[in-house]
Design a protein that fits this description.
Shape: globular
Structural class: alpha/beta
Largest sheet: 9 strands, mixed
CATH class of one domain: Alpha Beta
Radius of gyration: 21 Å
Low-confidence stretches: 285-290
Mean pLDDT: 87
Strand content: 15-25%
CATH superfamily of one domain: Vaccinia Virus protein VP39
Number of strands: 11
CATH topology of one domain: Rossmann fold
CATH architecture of one domain: 3-Layer(aba) Sandwich
Helix content: 25-40%
Number of helices: 10
Distance between the termini: 31 Å
Length: about 325
């Protein structure tokens, strides 16, 4: 686990959006995976000028761990939580198990830069992360969305975060992004599927795509008193679902099949317009029956430049 260039941009965006770093917790003790020159460049994008010597010191970290960077961003204390003491975590806890009551509401900021996908008991693990944030504090998450099969046990979708980090669980998503690990500051700001009233996705045949989440704890309530439901199913069930072509089939599913057919026809048209050397990979995807969106749907997500002075569009 480690904090690389994109995760640093996420930290800096969260700081601009009001996150309090004073009492920080990292899930897993985080390596700092960046060069001094790249760190200087990213910090400069957010109006923070680092002398060369300071950047070199921060990049080396504390035995290459990320605590000095978090302290530079305002942390007075930095704890780390792990199932093992091997890397020197200050809190030993298996995220598959519920936390001790004494951990509740201890931190102003909790950062998971790539742990949840490795934990089998996801609801318990996420509830633990949510429960240790104090009211008014923030939870930052960076998890795989696409093209990381084999990296962990899971990949995640936007709907997962909007339904779990929701007001009924005492949270609100302030911003949710899709970004390419190892890429630049050209991200996508993603809207809530419930607001769009569609399944929000963006599948491309390139490097790993990660979801970045900035969420604020607005109330301390019982977590997951009702299990979250996928937004499109929940809306259909709530609104007296209409029958489709068959009496045994919902119109909801007929619409999904029709949208897929239109999308695949659009993809074939785009492929023909591309240069011959770009054709083979998309054709393999189509033969495999996969839906591949060559461009994001502007009703679902908008380009976002992850630099200082910007504010993401509303996720709803």
């Amino acid at each position: 686990m480690g904090i690389e260039s994109q995760a640093i941009r996420l930290l800096l965006l969260a700081r601009e959006m009001g996150a309090d770093f004073s009492r920080s917790l990292t899930i897993g003790r985080q390596d700092l995976l960046i060069t001094a020159s790249d760190l200087r460049s990213i910090m400069a994008d957010f109006g923070i000028r680092l002398p060369v010597e300071e950047a070199q010191t921060l990049a080396k970290g504390r035995n290459r761990f990320a605590e000095p960077l978090l302290e530079r961003l305002g942390a007075e204390t930095v704890d780390s939580l792990d199932a093992s003491s091997f890397e020197g975590a200050t809190i030993i806890h298996d995220l598959n198990e519920p936390p001790e009551p004494s951990m509740a509401e201890r931190f102003s900021l909790v950062i998971d830069a790539g742990t949840l996908e490795h934990v089998f008991n996801v609801p318990t693990a996420l509830a633990t992360m949510m429960s240790v944030v104090r009211k008014g504090g923030h939870l930052l998450l960076a998890h795989p969305a696409n093209n990381e099969m084999g990296h962990g046990l899971y990949q995640f979708s936007p709907d997962f975060y909007f339904r779990t980090l929701a007001p009924e669980n005492g949270y609100r998503v302030k911003a949710l992004f899709l970004a390419e690990i190892g890429g630049g500051p050209q991200w996508l700001a993603v809207r809530d599927p419930a607001a769009v009233r569609a399944r929000v996705g963006f599948n491309v045949p390139r490097g790993p795509q990660y979801i970045f989440v900035i969420a604020e704890r607005i109330e301390v309530v019982q977590l997951f008193s009702k299990p979250p439901q996928q937004s499109d199913y929940a809306a259909e069930w709530k609104e007296n679902p209409s029958k489709g072509v068959s009496e045994e089939r919902l119109a909801f599913f007929d619409r999904a099949i029709e949208q897929r057919s239109v999308s695949e026809r659009s993809i074939r048209h785009k492929i023909v317009a591309h240069a011959p050397q770009t054709i083979l990979r998309p054709l393999r995807w189509l033969r495999a029956g996969r839906q591949m969106d060559l461009k994001p749907d502007p009703s679902q997500m908008q380009p976002f430049l992850a630099k200082g002075g910007f504010r993401p569009p509303s996720p709803v």
